Amino acid sequence: MRIGTRASPLALAQAHHVASLLGGDVELVEVTTTGDRDRAAPDKEKWVKELELALLDGRVDACVHSAKDVPTTLPDGLVIAGVPAREDPRDVLCTARGVVAGTVEELPPGARVGTSSLRRAALLRAARPDLEIVEIRGNVGTRLALLERGDLAAIVLAAAGLRRLGHDLDAVGTPLPARTFVPAAGQGSLALECRADDTATRAALDALSDRDAHDTLAAEREAVRTLGADCHSAVGARAVRGDEDRLELHGWVGAPDGSAVVTDVLQAGPGELPADLGRRLGERLLAAGARALLDQTPEVLS
């Protein structure tokens, strides 16, 4: 099987993980995406478009994506066929040497905090309007190096990326509670994509799927799709398996400047499908005023 992947350290770590789960004869095919060439490119598909083109023209049989990077609408002929067990979905507050802060609230007044995420920026501003949010780019190693230089008091990174690259979370930062600092939809999950008519590859990828990871991703992605959100939206969605084996879904939508938020938590009804729960939560958020926040002009971060 030929697996398409970006060439970043994190993407390769993820692809090697999937290859090890598949076993057998697996070849990794590195593909350069728009996001690799231009990290300021505006669209979410910048991380997946070229990989999907490689699938469609037969250069690869499957692709490994960070699920949070995959648009909620896939190109015709492609499917997400597998979702392996989810890594930690939380965000992590990484502080510079000499800055003692285990929470956003404990950061020094006016602290400079780096991120490239509109969602993280809005969450930070909502919690601490005094913080100076600084746009940073680059892979995980580059961002940690920026923190070491001392120009920033803290940065916020995904726990999943840190763990997959072998970092000890206790050594690099403090995870932020997912109920209050709501992760991006799909954060911590891998999406294994292939051609819809490739039955052999679909079966192989489906065999790697974890039920909880599959269902939580389906609920979160449908909530975002219902909201009509994109990479210019400050949106979080986090599903967990709750009482009586039912999914519980928490959604969060914020104004880009953090001045207003809409949030809601729903539990699935008896027999309710994950996507139906996501749709219901998205509709409730819209009814509560989320559209007005989504339509606000975003900050520079993307």
UniProtKB/TrEMBL annotation:
The keyword Chaperone does not apply. Its cofactor is dipyrromethane. One of its GO terms (molecular function) is hydroxymethylbilane synthase activity. It is an enzyme of class 2 (transferase). Residues 218-286 form the Porphobilinogen deaminase C-terminal domain. It comes from the Bacteria. Transmembrane segments: none annotated. GO terms for biological process: heme biosynthetic process. Residues 1-202 form the Porphobilinogen deaminase N-terminal domain. InterPro entries: HemC (IPR000860), Porphobilin_deaminase_cofac_BS (IPR022419), Porphobilin_deaminase_N (IPR022417), Porphobilinogen_deaminase_C (IPR022418), Porphobilinogen_deaminase_C_sf (IPR036803). Its EC number is 2.5.1.61. One of its GO terms (cellular component) is cytoplasm. Keywords: Porphyrin biosynthesis, Transferase. Belongs to the HMBS family. NCBIfam families: hemC. Monomer. Tetrapolymerization of the monopyrrole PBG into the hydroxymethylbilane pre-uroporphyrinogen in several discrete steps. This is Hydroxymethylbilane synthase. It comes from Paraconexibacter algicola.
